[in-house]
Structure formats: structure tokens, C-alpha cells
Amino acid sequence: MTAVFSEIIEEQTGYFGEGWQYPIFAIVLVGLLLLWRRRDAAIAALYTVIMMVVIYCPVTAKFLMSFMEGGVYWRMFWLLPIIPVLALGMVEFLPLVVRAAVDLFKADDKKKKPISVIAVVLVLAIYAGLLAGGGRFVYQDGNVTWAHNPEKLPEEVIDIIDAVNADYEAAPVGEKRVAAVGTIVPFIRQYDATVLLAYGRSTIQKEDKSGKKAELYEQLTNAENPDYDRIAKLLKKTDTTYLIIADNMHVRASEMNVRGFETVYGNGAYTLLKRD
Amino acid sequence: MIYDLVLTIGVMLLYILIFRLVGTTVLTVLGQKKLYIHRETVGFFAYFALFQMVYVPMVLLRARFHLLAYGWILTLVILVLLCAVYLVTAGGKSPFAMPGDTVMEEGLLGYMKWPVVIGCAAFVVFLVLQQYLGWDTAFYMGNMNEAIYTDTMYYYNGNDGTLMKSLDFRYALSGFSMQFAIPCFLLEVSPTIMCYYGIRGLGAILALLIVYDFGMLLFEKNESRAYLLVTAFLAVNMFFFTYSATSLFFIRRMNEAKGYCANVVLPMVALLLFMIYKKFGRHLWALLFVICLGSVGASMSSMMLVPALLGLGAVLLAINEKRLRPVFYAIVCALPNLCYVALFILNHEKILVIKL
Q1: ipTM of this complex prediction, to 2 decimal places
Q2: Helices (DSSP H) in chain A: which residue ranges?
């Protein structure tokens, strides 16, 4: 049970990060209870409390986790109305403040006019600041990435796969199976699923790196001193016709050339070799 | 590729029209023409509910993909014709129009409509232009590509193309990817373009419509407040970026079924439960049943999450109404999802294995 609870806390940390959404959510919910239609807010609060009990209770969590393969319990946090309540807080409280400020502004006492304006700006700034400062802007840290082509894939990858297709069409040998450096593996079949892969996600992400496919991946992507004889053997054993290496990594095309691999194409970023 | 983009936009517009037609028909059949809910969102679930009835038997029987494509197009043509005839004969005046008894506040808030609509449209365009390269995206696109190129469904691993030993129910039971592979197959549109532009844009639009409907429900058909809620929703999403948050899926991964689960399915179920609580209309449990029936078609994650949401929602409704009837209705609504859970468990425990 302790292990289950630790996993729940880990998932919670992953869901909320270091943001303040949780406490702001609690404050807004209390605010709605005090200021809003109490029955509606009470239902929302009761729902939240019970759902949190279900999510955090190790007994129910263990039961639910048994249906969720691969560590995806964080999806249970989707059942908490965090974003709707935060958005509702903005909609309910800010007009209240604005209305009060407008009433103050319209009052006869001229001294109250600037106070009302300052009050509105302050409240808006505090709420916006809490959300922005307490959260993490989605479009930061390189999360805004403009695609250079409609497929939204790296241009060099599209280019090299086109080269695979052109070569295979001109001189088909065996299956159109490719072993590629790990960094571009996810992109290949997004572009063209007629290209088979020597290894995929399950090989790259598994902890146990034993087996032909895992060894081939390690040699091509992570080995500082690649064993070229072993690479050639593994490519033959996995019935892989094409090899794509990155020009700025350790595996050298020249070493593969003397081991029966012909350089078919290069675009400065990647080199395509074909097994004779 | 421009050709693919233009076709993708055309296909999405067609989807929205069909969803509107089907949604309007469902609401008319239930006698809910005056219910303030976007017909497109109702239609989306009704559409997928019907699609699942065609798709699931076919995938379990290992039918070829082209059979699904042509079979579904035939079913769709019949569906559209039936809906059109029904609405012409029984739909009354202007069946497609949303109920008009809404309120717009005076002053600044009264001018919210067009800035918010234009803002949302700009946001959706910005959203579909974003690049997100992840394993899950690669997997789903791989499945769509495989279906088209090999004329099979889930025979091959979407990531690396290796032949699977048996059908993986974890992915195969939901028709989401195969549904959007059909227009790609028929019109020769790249699944990559369909995913990034079409599926993503459609999901974002549906999510925003549901938020708006929530606002109309909460604020008693006050359009200004509803638009304000949509704006607030977008603002909060922008600043809640973590790997698991619904925001990430809404803004960056709406081309995945999980994005639809987080931002379309669960909010829609919550909306219906809230409507039932507010007694917003009649036959809402029947409408909720249709939503649940289509939910797994949109995302396999709905299999567990929708019953969890339904269960707790029903208990609260039962407490509110001081009777057990909501609980029984919720069990009936959850039955489709629970059937999928049963199939998943049987497959997971190697009791029901479909060899390929």
C-alpha cells in the first residue's frame, strides 16, 4: 500500500508540477461556496472531495491501476474539475469586483474614483499573476515549434526516406526495412508506413537492452566506439536492408562501406547505406 | 501537400456538417429541440456510437480495412439520408437553429461575441500549426498509415511495422484512428496531414463548444458570461503546462485520442450530468447513454474514466434527488464502457485472443 501511495503522489507531482493550481483551485472553490449559488458550489465541492478520496486511497487506486497499463494513473486527475473551477473563478469574481468598482466610480465622492480603478487593476493583476506566476506558460522552453513543412517532420528525415523509397523502387532487395539512429526513429513511419523498422519504441524504451534489436540500437545510437563487425552481423540477422546514420555521431559510413554496405545517399545530416 | 491540406479542411467541414445533422436528429428524436447544446458535439458522439457498431465486429473478425471503409461510407450515406428525411418530415421549422432565448449583457460584455469567436479561431489555427513529435503520435499515425498501405487493421505495430502475433485490444477496440484513416484512404490524403491539421482542429473546436455550452448552462443562457468562460478557459489552459495536464493535450496533442478523452469526452459527460442536476431538459439520461456509447470510439481511456465520472456523478444526483434512480440510470449508461472493459480484461488475461 505504501508503494501504491508513493506512486499516487508521484503521479500527482507529475500532473501539477510545481504550480499553484491546487491551492488556487481550493481557494476559488471556497470562494464559490461563499459567494455563489451555494447548492451548486456545494455539489462541486462534494464531488471534488469524494473524487480526491477515490484517487488518493491506495485501495481504490490499486484496483484502478490494474486496468491501466503502463503507468497512466495520472489520467485519474483529469476527473478533478481544476480548470473549469479556475476558469469559473475568473468569470464569477472579476465581474463582481468590476461592478463594485463601477459603483464606487459613480459615487459622488471624487476621491473614490481613483481608488475604484486601482482596486480593479489590482484584483485583475493578482488573479492573473497567481495563475501565470503559479503555473507554467505552455508556450515557453521551446514548446512553440514552427513546422518547416506541412508534415511537421524534420526536413532531413523526409529527404532521407524519399531516398530509401527511390532506391527501393529502382532496385528492390529484400524488405524495405531500415535501421536508423534512435533520434529519427519516431519520425520515419509518421511519414511513410511502407518503411519497416529494425526496432521501434518498445526496443528503445525498454530497460533490458539484451536481444538483437536492442543491441543494434545501442551500437548505432549510444556506443562511443561502435563494433562495426557486430553492426553488420546484426543488420543481416534482423533482415535489415538499409542503414541510416547521423553524420555528427560515432558510426562512420566509411567503416560500413568495407563491410558490404554501399552509400546510397547523403544530405549532410544523415547518410543512407544499403546492404549489398 | 497543399492539396492534402485543402482536402483535410474540406473533410473536417464535412464532418462538422454531418455531426450537426446527426446531433440535430438525435435531439429531435428525444424531443429536445429546445435544449441549449451544440448539435455538433452531440452528433460527434452519436456518429462514433454508430461507427463502433460497424467497426468493432469488423476488427474482431479481422476484416480488411477497405471493407470497413466502403461499408462505413455506405452506412453513412444511409444515415445522412435517413436523418435528412426525418428532419424534413418531423423536424419542424429550422431544426438546425440553436434555441434563441439567450441573453446578452449590456455594456462592454455585450460586445464579447465576435472578439472571442475570432480569438478562438486564431487560437485553433495557431494550435494546428504547432509541431509535436512524440512516440504516441508516431504510433497512431503508424496505425493509420498501416491500415491504408497494408489493408489491415492493427495487424502491424504502429511504431515499427512488425507483424503482431495477436490483436491488441488496448488499441484495436476504439475506432478513432481507423475512422480518420477512411477519408485518407478514399481521397488519398496523407494521414500525417489529417492528424496534425484535421483531427487536432476538430478536437479543439469541439472542446471549445462544450465549454461554451457549460457557460450557457451555468449562467442561465447568458451569452456574455459564456464567452467570458471560454476566454478564461483558454487563459487557464495556457498557464497550466505539465506533462500530464489536460492543457498539454488540448494545446499540443489534440491529434491523439487521449486529447479527445481529456477535453471532449469527459467534459461532455460532465456537462450532461450537470444538465441532469439542473433539470435542464427531458430525456437527458437517454442523451447521456448516447454520449457514453460513443465515448470509447473517441478514446479507449474513456473505458474506465467515464464510468468513474458517471458513478460519482450519479451518487451525488441520488443524494440531491433523495432517490436511487440516478444510480440505476448511470449503470445503464456505463454498460457500453463496462462491456469494453470486459473485452479488454478477457484479452489481457489471454482468455480472448485473436491471432493474426
Answers
A1: 0.81
A2: 2-16, 21-35, 38-56, 58-65, 82-106, 112-134, 155-170, 185-191, 201-205, 212-221, 228-237, 253-257
